[in-house]
Each structure stands twice: as structure tokens, then as C-alpha cells.
Amino acid sequence: MGRATSKDPQALIHSLRSAYAATPFSLKIIDLYVGFAVFSAIIQVVYMAIVGSFPFNSFLSGVLSCIGTAVLAVCLRVQVNKENKEFKDLPPERAFSDFVFCNLVLHLVIMNFLEEMVKPESCLIMSCRCRWSSCPAEPMGINFAQNITTSMK
Amino acid sequence: MSPPLRVNPQPLSLSPRQRKDPTTTKMARSNFSVLTILSVILLLPVLSLSFSPASPSDRRLLVLLDDLSLKSSHSIFFNSLKSRGFDLDFKLADDPKLALQRYGQYLYDGLILFSPSIERFGGALDLAAVLDFVDSGHDLIIAADSSASDLIKSVATECGVDFDEDPSALVIDHRSYAVVGTEGDHTLIAADDFIESDVLLGENKIEAPVLFKGIAHSLNAANNLVLKVLSASPAAYSANPSSKLSSPPLLTGSSISLVSVVQARNNARIMITGSLDMFSNRFFRSSVQKAGSPKKYDKSGNEQFVTELSKWVFHERGHLKAVNLRHNKAGETDEPAMYRIKDDLDFSVEIYEWSGKSWEPYVANDVQVQFYMMSPYVLKTLSNDKKGLYHTSFKVPDVYGVFQFKVEYNRLGYTSLLLSKQIPVRPFKHNEYERFITAAFPYYGASFTMMAGFFIFSFVYLYHK
């Protein structure tokens, strides 16, 4: 192995670029799309770090919509790549329809999740409270509706 | 209470059919029957007015005596009951026709046992019948004396007090005896150690000591419903006055109860005393001077004490009822079927006390409501408007589940109030959460950008060639 020189990184980048130039245009579009999604996810994380995590559901849905989009686009890229022998039997039309369907599901879920549904102080685990502590015995249980004992003789 | 009057609508529905009948005689008869029924129906409101309104006070009392001479020797007590509207039925305790109930209905609302020496009741009455009578919410006064039989003692034991086992023992007090002409054996006691309770003994303080001559009893420690109303002084003890004390007496000091009361969980009230003479005209009228005290009262406290306590026993005082339990969201009037977490709500209940004649507003500042789900999440003291209406408002806690409004009011001498009403509490609905939060706009923007991006990408990807 030769020693590293200052020319090596340049040569590396150059060879990468020349190799990438050979990539089909359709894959380049996907790469651009993935890059955009990851970039907006990073922006949101930075924004959350500055502003705080108050609308946490909204934050999650915003970031997850970006991540989900990126993941689905990467999956599409894997499937439509001609050099990938694993999916050589899968027609690209089928791969694209899968991509569209998964995106529809993803955005439906994101829309549903976008509202702030969980109040920070709201106690989700409610019924376990006091079940084992020293409560006075519950004499009538749950069928106690409207049972007003007014001691009429 | 008299059984509710029922109107049978059957005869009315028959009459139109009869009217269609062709024969004139039947026509006339049907007209007559219609008239009769109409007049009865018109008179019904008037008739029902003559029935007494529902009231918790006792009306019919059975008085069991050893000896009918007690009727005259204790006449002041009996007359005071009669003047308060009670219907007294005097019977000998061994009367063979004695019965408390007939056809499953109780014939009496209260029982006075002034028959200490009876070994066996006559008729269908026995220990179990007396206890059933109390268990069904009726009231009882037991007076024993030195001749108390095992039967009377066992009735008292079942009610939560134990009379002294020694049949010859009397309560003796060498310090707070009542001064009489001769020195005597100090078994006539001037007791003034009353329980401090206006509801039991009336608002007027009993000034003069109460004369007591009889046997001692102690409270059963396991029974927390029994109360000592008149306690013996610390110097009292229970022993046979005519023999020398060979061993220390079992019952001494203020553990001796002279008069006790019980309010059962079903609000039946029981009064137990070891002195039948306490109720007698002789003690009522007697002057009293406590040993060591210079003050001599012309009249003993017996009459006031016994009268006031009997008012309590027979539910003329201290009987509460709670009605109109209401709750609604703040600003609304209708009672909702369900609350949401963090709703503001108003709660109100009306509490009245029976005064012997009518329901009067009950005024107290210690009535509390609980918003309860296995433990109280909210406990608030209710404020009242002096007219019996108790009210408060609070915020539903941030917990959902099936809650109850609970009012549990147990105060010395008053009937216990136990009210509860179930109400579910739900979390926020999906559309009740905050929307369009400013801080979340970048996230909204990102989500919509991703959607737009997906659309544009698909377009470009499909048509780039």
C-alpha cells in the first residue's frame, strides 16, 4: 500500500463523480429527492432542538414523513436499478406502483398524527392508581349508579 | 307509615263497554257505577290529604311492662310521649298475645322494654324477634334494674353493652351520690357526666344532675356504634351494697356507663339504661343535691334528660335526609351523562333535618363531597345557603374513568348520609385537541412539502424521457 498524499482525496472524489455520471437519469432524480427529504428532516430536528419539544406529535409526524419518504424512495431506487440483479424479475412499473401505494398510506398516517393529541400532563395510565394501596373497601362496586341511600325508614 | 293508596283503573275501562249495552237497566246501573267511581276519584285528593305525610318519626310504640302499676308510677314520661303524638300500646311482657308483626308487617315503630325481670316474653316475642325488629330499622328503649333477667341482659348484649354479671350488684358512688335525708348506701347517684352533644341531649344544657339507681353496664369495645351518654363518675363502682367487698369490683370508674345509646347502620336507634327508676315520676319530681355540692336543685334533671334523649331515640331530632343531588357543567343546567376531563362542574345537594313535624334545612359547614374513583381525586367542602342547599364547583381531574360523586356524612347523633352517583369521565375527543399551533408550523410545512414533493417527483420520474 502506498502512502497517502494530498492528491488521493481529489482522485477519490474525481473517480466518484465520474462513476456517478454513468448513473441513469432516473436514479439521479431519486437521489435528489432523497437528499431533499433528509435535508428537511435535519432542519426539523435542529428547529426542535432550538424551540423545544412541545408539539411532540407534530414534530414526530413532520420528521417521520421526511424519513418515510426518503426510505420509500431508496426502496424504489433499489428496485428499479438495472444493475441490481436481485430484482431483475420485478418490472419497474410494479416497483413504482408499490412506491405510490406506500406513500399514500404514509401520508394518510402522517395527516392523522399531525395534531397534538397528547397533552403533556395527561395521565394515560390511570386505572392502576391506588388499586393496591389502602383504599377504603369499595362496598357497592360499579353498579352503584343512582343508588342514593337516604336512610328512609 | 301507612301503605300507599293504589287506584285501580280497571273499573273505569269497563264502563264504556257497559254503556253500549242495549238494555236500559244495565244502562242505569252503569251510569250509577260511573258516578260512584267518579265521585271516589274526585274525593281521592281530599282523602289522601287525611293521610299523614311521610315522616321518619315513630308513631306507634309498644310498651312492655312487668306490672301495670308502672303505667301510673311512670306516667309523666308516658304522657310526654303521648303529647308528642305517639300512640302507646301498653302490654304485660308475658301477655300470650304479644306480637311485633303480623303478615310480615310490623305493627309498631318502636319498642320500650320496661320489663326488667321478665324471663320469657309471651306470645311470639323472643330475643330474635326483638333483634329482627331493630334490624329492620325500628327503635328500642331498654331499661333494666337490679332484678334484670338474663333475657333483658342478652338483648342488651346483642346491642353492644354488657350489664354486670353479678345479679346483686348496684352502682355505688361514695362521692357523687345524691344527698337524701338518711345516709343510706350511696346507690342513689346524682350523675352529671353527660356526653357533649346538642343533637342527643337538646340545645338547652341540663343543669341539674340526673338521679340514677340501678345496675352498671359497660360498652362492648368491639362495637363502635355504641355511645356512652351518661357516664358514672371516676369514683363509682359496681358491687353488692349490702355485703363487704371481698375482691376488687370488675366495673369501676368512668368505664361504667349509666345510659348508652346505639345508632345502628340502618339508623335504628337504641337506648339502654340500668335504671328503670330514672323514668319514674318520683325521680322526675324529686329535688336533688349532689354530695359535696352546696347547690340544691328543686327538680332533678331526669325529666329533661329522658325527654330529650327519647326525642332523639324516636327520630324527632338528628334525622337527616339528602335529596336533589344535582351536578352539571358550569354554565349549563342539564345533567350530562358524561364529563370530559378538565370540565368545570357544579355540584349541589339538599340536606334537611326532621324536626318532629317538618323537614327543616340542615345547616353545617362540614359536609364534603368526593369525586371518587377507588380513592377520592377531589374532596371539597360544600358551602350552604342556610336553606338546605349545599353547593360547590370544581374542575374534573385530568384522569378518565368511571367516577362517583360521593357524600358520606357521619356525625355523632345524626343519621349517616351515604350518597353516591356514578358518572363516567372521558378523555378529549380527537377534535378537541389544540390545532394549528404556531410552534408546529415548520412540521406542518414539512409534511405538506413531502406530499407536494411526492407529487412532483412522480411527475418528473414518469415523464422525464
Automatic annotation (TrEMBL), chain A:
**Predominant location:** endoplasmic reticulum
What the protein does?
Subunit of the oligosaccharyl transferase (OST) complex that catalyzes the initial transfer of a defined glycan (Glc(3)Man(9)GlcNAc(2) in eukaryotes) from the lipid carrier dolichol-pyrophosphate to an asparagine residue within an Asn-X-Ser/Thr consensus motif in nascent polypeptide chains, the first step in protein N-glycosylation. N-glycosylation occurs cotranslationally and the complex associates with the Sec61 complex at the channel-forming translocon complex that mediates protein translocation across the endoplasmic reticulum (ER). All subunits are required for a maximal enzyme activity.
> Looking at the record's lineage, which domain of life comes first?
Eukaryota
**GO BP annotations, alphabetical order:** protein N-linked glycosylation
Source organism: Salix dunnii
Xref: InterPro entries: DAD/Ost2 (IPR003038)
Similarity comment: family membership: Belongs to the DAD/OST2 family.
> Under what name is this protein listed?
Dolichyl-diphosphooligosaccharide--protein glycosyltransferase subunit DAD1
Q: Which UniProt keywords apply?
A: Apoptosis, Endoplasmic reticulum, Membrane, Transmembrane, Transmembrane helix
Q: Which pathway is this protein engaged in?
A: Protein modification; protein glycosylation
Q: Where is this gene product found?
A: Endoplasmic reticulum membrane
Transmembrane stretches, by residue range? Answer: 32-50, 56-76
User: One Gene Ontology cellular component annotation?
Assistant: oligosaccharyltransferase complex
Topology in the lipid bilayer: Multi-pass membrane protein
Q: Name one Pfam family in it.
A: DAD
Assembly mode = Component of the oligosaccharyltransferase (OST) complex.
Q: Quick check: keyword Transmembrane helix in the entry?
A: yes
TrEMBL record, chain B:
Task: Spell out where the chain crosses the membrane.
Answer: 441-463
Pathway listed: Protein modification; protein glycosylation
Q: Which residues form the OST48 N-terminal domain?
A: 60-313
List, alphabetically, the Pfam families matched. Answer: OST48_MD, OST48_N
Keywords associated with the record = Endoplasmic reticulum, Membrane, Transmembrane, Transmembrane helix
Family classification? Belongs to the DDOST 48 kDa subunit family.
- This chain belongs to the protein called Dolichyl-diphosphooligosaccharide--protein glycosyltransferase 48 kDa subunit
Which species is this record about?
Salix dunnii
